[in-house]
Write a structure and sequence with these properties.
Blueprint: E1 3-10, H1 15-21, H2 23-27, E2 31-36, E3 43-50, H3 54-60, E4 65-68, H4 74-80, E5 85-87, E6 90-93, E7 106-109, H5 122-131, E8 142-145, H6 151-160, E9 164-168, H7 171-183, E10 190-194, H8 201-204, E11 209-215, H9 218-223, H10 225-231, E12 232-244, H11 248-257, E13 260-270, E14 273-282
Parallel strand pairs: 6-7, 8-9, 8-11, 9-10, 11-12
Antiparallel strand pairs: 1-3, 1-4, 2-3, 5-6, 12-14, 13-14
Length: 283
Amino acid sequence: MSVWTAWLEVPAADRASREQALEHLAEKGFVITSREVSRDGPWRIEIFGEGDRTEVAAAIGAGWHWEELGDRDWVAENQRSFQPFAVGPFWVHPSHDAGSMPVGLLPLRIDAGMAFGTGTHATTSGCLKMLATLDRAETANAVDVGCGSGILAIAMAKLWQRPVIGGDNDAEAVEVAQENAVLNGVSDRCRFVHAFGLRNEALQARLPYDLVVANILAGPLMELAESFSAAVRAHGRVLLSGLLLEQADDILTVYRRWGFALERHIDLETGGAIWRTLLLQRT
């Protein structure tokens, strides 16, 4: 079956909205990547797939460039563009390059590939930074909703040396997260399940949670507010990311209705857009 890519270069300021518009394709199994072509833009957004391209062509319209990839290992090519870096107390690196890790950091071995979450995007970096500010004594029971690559659950397991559970509505992402837990030596502390939000027997069995982490998108975050409120203990927290700065007020309005109050936030930039990570506490 032929492997193909469709790509488009966009201004840095447009990158975030373009990526969000492609989210429905990622949910159907197509791989979406983006990288900065030059400092301060533009960005190259690529969609990878195999076989029939009709669905993608209808979704993206004209103006995109199409290439047949033949026998090229496009996942490996994407991985080679991923370089080690520090974020908070973590050293994030791919399998092929551990780099020179500074003393005292916790290694997170994550490869770019079939599931979202390598730490390079502001949403994931914001979560990693925020996790490092939390008191271990107040995070005994944590869940990662929409775990993607598993990077946040793995980070929590390493940071706090305790079991963490995660879930994702993409069965392939669950497999990737499990593999990454093995690579990071925390397979005994990380469990990942196929779930839509918190709708899974294993996730329900661990209620109430001290901490719910969700790095997804603004729309799903608002839809999950009620279930998160029911799942978090009194004075427990939710850590929310995947939202642009201009979406934060809408998220806060919804979560306040369900008994949460803003504790603090982190703003980081990626691709010319500001992304906000929120820490809320249930009152």
